[in-house]
Design a protein that fits this description.
Radius of gyration: 22 Å
Number of helices: 18
Strand content: under 5%
Order of helices and strands: HHHHHHHEEHHHHHHHHHHH
CATH topology of the largest domain: Hypothetical protein af1432
Number of domains: 3
Shape: globular
Number of strands: 2
CATH class of the largest domain: Mainly Alpha
Structural class: mainly alpha
Strand order of the largest sheet: 1-2
CATH architecture of the largest domain: Orthogonal Bundle
Helix content: 40-55%
């Protein structure tokens, strides 16, 4: 019979977790016995950083005419829904996974991954910019919630288990790993390493906990399926092309050029075949209510297909009672990984890499770089009050430049343009892919 565990504060600890998992970097006392992991989730859900995701680009700009399209907040909610179901099926704490899923995109700057590239270039002399490291920085330092009597900020001060679950890349900038696009991925900036080291106490080096793996898989599932749905609804993708034999070879080539060569052409070919032969696969789309219903049923089927396969494979690989933290790892069948990659490749080939959008992506990067330079030149008085205080307290230019990056990364797509107008000069929103009043709802500027 399992013995119920309690934290040092006397609160019950979720099954499969231990007292170290519910510790916080800065000790806290609370009047209620509310579950520590539920408290973590609520802190993220009520944070300003999370609310700002509503105005940050997922694939299509949240200010585009495509008002059906996901933004980073709705995407995060959908990731959390997938993650919570996987966590329940694997007997992980759902709130820990939910917190990680809700948090996973907090560090994204304006204009999504394109904005990441811009800030990484601008910050090259101070260690660059990485969205996941920025997420950790928000959670442990920037988001106003917990402070000590000396005025030191601890961000949301999440428990060790929840914070570790948000960490997709559990290593420092000294040993990064390149992604398929060549960007260096790491999980923490040098000045945030003390909390990172505390978070990773007892963890195997460079290994993610299972809750972080569930978060990452849920992100892949939600991104691949829901962005596919958006692309169909908003006219970027004709589903008839995906089942057309005459288009097949060119389509597989485009998918492979986007996802890289971790999968062979035969694997991608087979995955595309399996998907397009599903009974619920969409053969055409005419924007009718019936077509929208069929598309929604397809997305539900795909999410269930991927989640069920991963759950079954993980249970088979780890026939144990407890899978939490470092007791097990998520197993995703190779064929499912290939199917997810095919959906990502379709989005990449038909939406993200549209030839006409290259000038938009270039201008987005220029906007953020010019804005960062202007703020650097103007100093503290140009920043929001919290960042202005950080800027004045900084002891060297490296710290001050990092604060400029924090400020720019915190902006939404629209506020980045507003700040650009204020500190650099006017710019047509259409030049960066954002719809503005006076532009027809049914029109797109690419």
């Amino acid at each position: 019979m399992a013995v119920e565990q309690r934290s040092s504060a006397g609160r019950r600890i979720s099954e499969g977790y231990v007292s170290a998992d519910v510790e916080r970097f800065h000790g806290e006392t609370h009047r209620s016995e509310r579950d520590d992991f539920a408290r973590d989730r609520a802190r993220v859900l009520h944070s300003a950083a999370w609310r700002r995701l509503a105005a940050k680009t997922q694939v299509l700009s949240p200010a585009s005419p495509a008002d059906f399209a996901r933004n980073r907040l709705t995407h995060s909610l959908e990731v959390a829904q997938v993650g919570r179901e996987l966590a329940t099926n694997l007997r992980l704490n759902p709130d820990v996974v939910d917190t990680a899923c809700l948090s996973h995109d907090l560090g994204h700057p304006p204009f999504g991954h394109n904005g990441e590239r811009a800030l990484n270039d601008w910050a090259s002399g101070i260690g660059g910019f990485e969205g996941n490291a920025q997420t950790l920085r928000i959670l442990i330092r920037l988001e106003p919630k917990v402070m000590d009597d000396a005025g030191n900020a601890y961000g949301l001060n999440l428990t060790r288990a929840s914070l570790d679950a948000t960490c997709k890349y559990p290593w420092t900038v000294d040993a990064p790993v390149p992604d398929p696009g060549g960007r260096l991925k790491f999980g923490v900036y040098p000045d945030d390493e003390p909390v990172f080291r505390w978070m990773r106490e007892g963890a195997p080096g460079r290994v993610r906990c299972i809750e972080a793996e569930v978060m990452d898989l849920s992100d892949d599932i939600a991104y691949s399926v829901h962005d596919f749905e958006d692309a169909v609804v908003n006219g970027y993708l004709n589903p008839a092309r995906l089942s057309d034999p005459a288009e097949h070879e060119a389509l597989v080539s485009a998918i492979q050029s986007w996802v890289g060569y971790d999968f062979t052409r035969d694997e991608l070919d087979d995955a595309l075949y399996r998907l397009t032969r599903l009974p619920v696969w969409l053969r055409s789309f005419d924007h009718s209510r019936a077509a929208l219903a069929r598309l929604k049923n397809l997305t539900s089927e795909l999410i269930g297909r991927f989640a069920r396969a991963a759950t079954a494979a993980t249970r088979e690989a780890y026939p144990v009672e407890v899978m939490t933290r470092y007791h097990a790892h998520v197993v995703v069948p190779r064929v499912v990984e290939a199917e997810v990659a095919v959906l990502k490749g379709i989005i990449g080939a038909t939406v993200v890499s549209i030839e006409g959008r290259k000038s938009i992506y270039k201008e987005q990067r220029r906007v953020l770089k010019r804005l960062a330079t202007a703020l650097w030149q103007d100093g503290a008085h140009a920043l929001d009050p919290v960042f202005a205080a950080d800027f004045r307290d900084a002891t060297n230019d490296t710290e001050r430049k990092r604060i400029i990056v924090d400020q720019v990364a915190s902006l939404t797509d629209q506020t980045a343009l507003a700040w650009h107008r204020r500190y650099v000069g006017d710019i047509d929103p259409a030049d960066v892919g954002i719809w503005s009043p006076g532009f027809g709802i049914g029109e797109r500027r690419h």
